[in-house]
Amino acid sequence: MADTQPILKIRDLDISFKTDGGNVKAVRGVDLDLHKGETIAIVGESGSGKSVTTKAVMGILAGNGTINNGTIEYTYADMSPERIAEVQEKYDGVIPEGYLKPEEIKTVDIVQSAPKFIQSQIRGRRIAMVFQDPMTSLDPTMTIGKQVMEAMRFHYNTPKQEAWKKAVRLLELVGITDAEKRMKNYPHQLSGGMRQRVVIAIALSCDPEVLICDEPTTALDVTIQAKILELIKEIQKKKDLSVIYITHDLGVVAKVADYVNVMYAGRIIETGTVNEIFYDPRHPYTWGLLASMPDVDSSDDELYTIPGTPPNMLHEPVGDAFAPRNRFALQIDEKVAPPMFELTPTHKVASWLAAPNAPKVEMPEDLKKRINRMKKEADLNV
Ligand SMILES: Nc1ncnc2c1ncn2[C@@H]1O[C@H](COP(=O)(O)OP(=O)(O)OP(=O)(O)O)[C@@H](O)[C@H]1O
């Protein structure tokens, strides 16, 4: 995938927030690529900068936030209303390969784009987002139907009757039975799982190319969680969507992601394919995350927790931000932040342990055993 043009290409993104206590350095030089049809996950503890990064993509940073540096290049299809209608009627909203004329392919830098352009052309239309708690993204005073139709009416001026029909189809697509009847319901008349399905239907209503899912299943119980993840996967295949998952939950990542980006203190500290991150992790922070992931063979009380807490980003850390919590830290970590070392064309790690002349450090034995168990389980499931 790496040699094709990404639809979303983030380079050197740097974001801070002005607060009474000073400047919070939330994102510090993030690079990220998303290709057509693929799923990437951004994982890391609370406060690592996952949401801020994706909010910048959507152009919805809080008012006290500033993008100090970097680019967010988005490449998209810019078609006439007639061509859009043709794609919707003939190809169910999915642009077939080879359909676009060269002049219809545009690249914009979202960082430099006017808020009006992002609102009318990007957010909700081409890049849509599903948030953690459906109750905060749904309007309790508006029927489900009206809410699913709203973005279509706003972005495409879709006539009411047509929007109604498409909304019913979308509710059916996300597995809501009796869709016609449900259109007239209010959010409180639905269960949590059903509400999250509605939120997904809303996100899909304008046939976006990119779907950002911010902890989409955290508020749901485990069986419903699995169903929602399956649903997003199915729709992704049907619609050739590119998906970004933001999550704390490595269990979710293992089920859905092609590529994983591990974030710590505003930086991506390890990136790789899902197999590279789960079976051959190199950063001690990634080791900690994997070791603290519940699995069938470990009871909750023997689960590992990473010692210490993430740094306070009001004071930008000197050297490697993870060093104070890292029992494998080297002297250099205290002074100089590690660069990204390339291990394979897809696997990179920001740790001095990966430097050519670094002392050889092995991951903890317990984690090795756990990884072997994961590999065996994966073999059984093939
Ligand atoms: N409006 C704001 N004002 C000040 N600081 C902010 C603001 N929004 C985010 N931050 C800070 O930016 C940093 C990154 O936050 P972000 O929400 O991206 O973390 P996250 O990794 O998504 O965590 P979570 O999993 O809890 O959502 C945190 O230190 C957070 O406190």
Automatic annotation (TrEMBL):
In the record, biological process GO terms are: peptide transport
Membrane-topology descriptor: Peripheral membrane protein
Asked whether the keyword ATP-binding is assigned, the reply is: yes
Query: Could you tell me one molecular function GO term of this UniProt entry?
Result: ATP hydrolysis activity
**Localization:** Cell membrane
UniProt keyword annotations, A-Z: ATP-binding, Cell membrane, Membrane, Nucleotide-binding, Transport
Annotated Gene Ontology cellular component terms: plasma membrane
Q: Which SMART domains match?
A: AAA
Principal place where this protein is found?
membrane
Pinpoint the ABC transporter domain residues.
10-290
Q: Where is the signal peptide?
A: none
- Alphabetized Pfam families for the sequence: ABC_tran, oligo_HPY
Q: Which family does it belong to?
A: Belongs to the ABC transporter superfamily.
Name of the featured protein: Oligopeptide/dipeptide ABC transporter, ATP-binding protein domain protein
- Source organism (scientific name): Faecalibaculum rodentium
